[in-house]
Design the sequence.
């Protein structure tokens, strides 16, 4: 789908092409939450998250990620894509709590549609995708990493990764769960998802939620080495294999996208859930103080 069509699908509030383009252009002009550096000779792009303070996946950030992904997919010179945080310490703090708290149902629906779109695009990405996890990686950050073909994590015990939704009093949607099961298996997912576990590097490697743990100063070179190994495989064979493996999981969401949006809106709008999110945000503030 063309860039403008994608933007229009993601920005349903906009009534005309002009409005869509004006909104996207305005978002771009305001800031770049995603920085893309391309090494054309190597055929590899690095997408760096730059959404201070903690790279939360706000609606704007998610939209920028989708737009940049589409651009890279259309660039036939790019065969591999590495995700990382521009500032080590936090890879991504996950979905933006402020897009899920104190807003109206139309906003929740718009946000969820954009998050679905990002996952669908990443999970089916024809490029080789590697997550270079150079910081904390909870919830939605973990989801992004798990959509990648390979995960390299920096060996810093302060960094943790996992789907911690239950600890916030919220429930990971079925496609988060499916992605986790595809990554670490069913039994490990039962434990991990119900307890909302966040794993430090050694445990993350043991459970298989990451594939490699390396000293922090080697995390980028290790990701490049992994990328070189994957790029040695002919694209068409690898891409078809990836599509075959992931299609059932993708189809599962595609079949029930609208119902999933409605379920999200009704769940997140509940007073009890809003209260829980409010308390969690307060807890984050107090922790800081
Ligand atoms: C029946 C089935 C129905 C299904 C319906 C679906 C239900 C909903 C599913 C939604 C799924 C959600 C997935 C998510 O991703 S939720 C987000 C989860 N994220 C977290 O729990 C991480 C929280 N953050 C942290 O733990 C830490 O911030 C950090 C990432 C470890 C970094 O620590 P730090 O010390 O460097 O920074 P800190 O001082 O904590 O934070 C700085 C400011 O940033 C704010 N903030 C942190 N995380 C978020 C976030 N995710 N969104 C928005 N804002 C965030 C934090 O509050 C600080 O703000 P301030 O400076 O005090 O104003």
Sequence:
């Amino acid at each position: 789908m063309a860039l403008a069509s994608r933007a229009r699908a993601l920005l349903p509030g906009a009534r005309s092409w002009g409005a869509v383009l004006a909104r996207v252009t305005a978002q771009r002009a305001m800031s770049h939450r995603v920085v893309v550096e391309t090494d054309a000779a190597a055929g590899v792009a690095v997408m760096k998250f730059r959404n201070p303070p903690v790279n939360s996946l706000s609606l704007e950030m998610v939209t920028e990620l989708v737009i940049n992904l589409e651009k890279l997919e259309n660039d036939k010179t790019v065969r591999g894509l590495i995700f990382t945080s521009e500032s080590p310490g936090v890879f991504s703090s996950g979905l933006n709590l402020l897009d899920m708290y104190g807003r109206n149902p139309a906003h929740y629906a718009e946000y969820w549609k954009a998050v679905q779109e990002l996952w669908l695009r990443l999970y089916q990405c024809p490029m080789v995708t590697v997550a270079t996890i150079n910081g904390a990686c909870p919830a939605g950050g973990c989801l992004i990493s798990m959509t990648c073909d390979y995960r390299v994590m920096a060996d810093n015990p302060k960094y943790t990764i996992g789907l911690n939704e239950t600890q916030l009093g919220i429930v990971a949607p079925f496609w988060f769960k499916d992605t986790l099961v595809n990554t670490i298996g069913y039994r490990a997912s039962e434990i991990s998802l119900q307890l909302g576990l966040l794993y430090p590097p050694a445990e993350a490697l043991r459970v298989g939620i990451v594939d490699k743990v390396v000293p922090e100063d080697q995390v980028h070179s290790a990701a490049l080495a992994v990328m070189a190994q994957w790029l040695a495989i002919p694209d068409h064979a690898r891409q078809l294999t990836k599509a075959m493996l992931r299609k059932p999981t993708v189809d599962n969401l595609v079949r029930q996208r609208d119902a999933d949006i409605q379920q999200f809106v009704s769940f997140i709008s509940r007073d009890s859930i809003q209260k829980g999110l409010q308390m969690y945000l307060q807890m984050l503030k107090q922790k800081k103080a």
User: Anything to note?
Assistant: The domain at 3-288 is CATH 3.90.226.10 (2-enoyl-CoA Hydratase; Chain A, domain 1). Confidence is low (pLDDT under 50) at residues 1-8, 10-30.
